[in-house]
Amino acid sequence: MGKTFSEKVMGRNIGSDVVAGQIIQAQPAICMSHDNSAAISGTFRKLGVREVKHPERLAIVLDHCVPAAGPKYAQNHKTIRDFVAEQGILGFHDLNIGICHQVLPEQGYVIPGSLIVGSDSHTCTYGAFGAFSTGIGRSEAAVTWATGEIWLKVPETIRIEVTGELGAWVTAKDIALKLIGDNGADGGLYKALEFVGPIVDAMTIPSRMVLCNLAVEFGAKNGYTPADDKVEAWLKPRLSPERWEQAEFLASDPDAAYCETITMEVTGIGPQVACPHTVDNVSPVEEVAGRSVQQVFIGTCTNGRIEDFELALKILKGNQVAKGTRLLIGPASAEIYREMASNGMLIAFIDAGALIINPGCGPCLGAHEGVLADGEICLSTMNRNFKGRMGNPKGEIYLASPAVAAATALRGVITDPRAL
Amino acid sequence: MSEREIVRGKAWKYGDDINTDVIFPGKYTYTITDPAEMAAHAMEDLDPGFAKNVQPGDVIVAGKNFGCGSSREQAAFCLTANKVGAVVASSFSRIFFRNAINAGLPTIELPGIAERIEAHETVTIDLGKGTLTCKAGEFSFPPLPPEVIGIVEAGGLVAYTRQRLGCADES
Ligand code: SF4
Fold this sequence. Notes:
The structure holds two protein chains of two kinds. Chain A folds into two domains: 5-263, Aconitase, domain 3 (2-Layer Sandwich); 272-419, Aconitase, domain 3. By secondary structure, chain A is of the alpha/beta class. Chain A is 33% helix and 17% strand. In chain A, strand 8, helix 6 and strand 9 form a beta-alpha-beta unit. In chain A, strands 4-3-2-5-6 form a five-stranded parallel beta sheet, with helices on both faces. A five-stranded parallel beta sheet of chain A has the order 16-15-14-17-18. Chain B has one domain: Aconitase, domain 4 (Alpha-Beta Barrel), CATH 3.20.19.10. Helices cover 31% and strands 19% of the residues of chain B. Chain B has a seven-stranded mixed beta sheet. The model of chain B has no long low-confidence stretch (mean pLDDT 88). Classes of the chains: A alpha/beta, B alpha/beta. The site of iron/sulfur cluster (SF4) has 12 residues of chain A, from helix 12.
């Protein structure tokens, strides 16, 4: 019997054959954490060890509430900086760098074939680079810092074959929302998701990151898109030669055991919208078109990359955001922000009436920036629309692609970009 | 495993897909770390009466995919801070399941259980035997995998790791 991608990476990590269902003591190549590193360091200190076992395996990125929204957040950041200095952790990125899930691949932490854990549920994003990556809790991160190990169950794999042809304005986001809408937010519970097929092969790396990022909204442990020469072209220049040498492109065997296969024929599907307050409450955009919104947000680790802003500008460039609607633009990282500054995108957004916010999570978790007033509605490119997610349980959030977001900002009501 | 073996308390019933944002609001995740304060905000956006009235040993009963959403472990710790005895659900989100184990909070997966338990009735769970008793009868559930039961028995991952690393018990 052949092996799945996840079985292969986990087996490689512990140096022996593993099968789905088995529990292993993994030794993650990287353990990522963000603003929650202060809390993790508190738990770490309770463990009775003085030093992080493998400081070179830590990556800490300040991104969730940057710059600090108040004294408590500021103290939280300071606690992290102090801990990093005390432990000699080199993999620290302060608040000017961007969102962890964009920063980790950009800064060379993600190596194909490696096993990565992160104290954030969207750690599953790095499956787009041929890594096995999954989210863990804070205590587990503290224990991983102390011992270098974590218990993980080898997941079964759902194979998702995406076939057909994508229509105008239809993106990876729409495919993921449709998958979650059709099968429920728990459709992939505990499982690994493997996205395959000609459409996935043709996708850019950022689009594949969208699919893997949203794997957790389907309940999955990790997401994976087959690694190819696009991954090599994207990653190699960002990795030192020594790190690149550790890369191994692992793929599922043709006779690997899948627990389920989902075939998605996407010909004819249009843009999708997840309605309040669950990610699986999905409707085709035309069914919800016309609802008025007060805020539109394009950004986050889901859709805050150059191709997302390019798509939005196809609609917004030379036009004006509707009166009474606020458009927030949040580049996912400093690298992306820089490119937008040099290629004219920032100016185009400013001229369209958008507000550019600093790279980081921004309005996505409702701690600061872009909090909704009671009864307000936001259409966002982020990955969650739970009640209270944007800081106010009396607000409502719709999720969609950057194309739907831009069309909606232009009209001030939820708008099908195909109808413009 | 000793006094942890039997859990007995009132059932707090909730629906499907209860997410971590309503169990413990994201806006507090970087500002509240004190267990008593965490306890006071448990289930705030879903059931404002919960934190005020929950008693030690009470049991949360829910439908499928309990704890979906963010990886925040306060969603488990705000429940242990209220001395919740166990969470019983048709299924759990993966990260919540891990966080609960790591917090020493027993999680019991029993498909369809929410339909069999009435709100506020008394539920008795024998973790050792793997049985849950309520008005509708006795139900069996598979015990946790042996690799992780030690963590729950130790009272959570921190205590378990301290034991493993040979540190004296925290008082
Ligand atoms: S952008 Fe949103 S979903 Fe992504 S890491 Fe930040 S808070 Fe989480």
